[in-house]
Amino acid sequence: MKREEIKVIKGIKGKEELGNKEEGRMDRIERMKRVKGIVMMMVMMVVK
């Protein structure tokens, strides 16, 4: 697939998800925090 096609498909998906964008952003931030927390725990365990 060409880059232009991928951009178009992403654009269509983005428009469909526009209504859920705020919720999705919060979910993504929460997930990032959770993942970072788990990674930090793993690092601390390894360091100890």
Average pLDDT value? 75
Number of structural units classed as domains = 1
In sequence order, what are the helices and strands, one letter per element?
HH
Radius of gyration: 17 Å
| Structural classification | mainly alpha
What is the subunit arrangement here?
A: single chain
Spans with pLDDT under 50 lasting ≥5 residues? none
In DSSP terms (H or I, runs of 4 or more residues), the helix count works out at: 2
* Amino-to-carboxy terminus distance: 47 Å
Envelope shape: elongated
By DSSP, the count of extended strands is 0
Largest sheet: none
Protein name: Variable outer membrane protein
Keywords: Plasmid
Organism: Borrelia crocidurae (strain Achema)
Describe it.
The chain has 48 residues and is mainly α. It has one domain (3-47). Helix content is 85%, strand content 0%. It has helices at 3-16, 21-47. The mean pLDDT is 75. Keywords: Plasmid. This is Variable outer membrane protein.
